Amino acid sequence: MREILTHKQRIVIKIGSSSLTHQETGNLNLSKMEKLVRILTDLTNQGKEVVLVSSGAIAVGRKSLGLMKKPEELALKQACAAVGQARLMMVYQKLFAEYNQITAQILMTKYTMINDISRENAQRTFHELLKLGIVPIVNENDTVTTDEVEFGDNDTLSAIVAALVDADLLILLSDIDGLYSDDPRSNPDATFIDTVEVIDDNILKMGKGAGSNVGTGGMGTKISAARIATDAGADMIIANGEDLSVIPHLLEGKNVGTLFKAHKNQDFNMLDYLSTKQYPKE
User: What Gene Ontology terms for biological process does this UniProt record contain (predicted)?
Assistant: First the structure.
């Protein structure tokens, strides 16, 4: 079953703030970012098309401004995002330039997807960039977004992007090996789920409760992202981003992470997934 991953051509990869920064200091983990950039550039060298959804703007901005704790006030969050997004992209641009790989920045809000004209423009831009061999680096536009028009987490954003660009595969890099029946850090009897054919009620239950809040967005948001991606026709994998070698390993067909199998929904409508913050029940 994993051999299908060796043939994926258009890939969206999401990486969270915890994977980009040093836990002890909050500073960017440059060696890890360099490895990520090298792997993604090598994928483009193989002829694959890659989109990177990267968190980290608020975290980088907060550190740059000397704030000790995560900001609560909206205006301060947006100030941190404005500072951090520019600094984060500067680092990405420098690292990708070392490998002669051109990148582009795309900042999105939910309004980009809700509005028909904006959505079509975004889609055309993505397709043109990929055709030119450019790696788009995507983040939510935290500088201007509000509660009413925010995706809220980059798991959801990455799934929407995967649907928008007709991706073959979405990879969510988390701080856990994949989907478990319960949080393995508190329950030693938790069972690892290798493959999910159908996202049924049992799978949905694994994304609920305090015990499953792993990673930046929590397991619940990752399962919601899987429903969007698989309905749009993309396979999705949750894998541990501690060692970024997991990306080429996945694309070599190695059995790591949890694979959510695509089941293209002929009635797929992106707006159904954006009308509320929660994924609509079947």
Answer: L-proline biosynthetic process
User: What size, in residues, is the chain?
Assistant: 282
Q: In this structure, are residues 32 and 244 in contact, taking their beta carbons and an 8 Å threshold? A: yes
Q: What is the pTM of this model?
A: 0.90
The reply, when asked if residue 195 is annotated as ligand binding, is no
CA distance 268 to 66: 45
> What CATH number does the domain located at 2-8+25-273 have?
3.40.1160.10
Q: Does the annotation place 257 within a ligand binding site? A: no
Consecutive H or E run containing 126: helix 116-131
Return the domain boundaries, the chain.
2-8+25-273
How is residue 279 annotated by DSSP? P
Residue 217 labelled as part of a binding site: yes
Is 116 among the annotated ligand-binding positions?
no
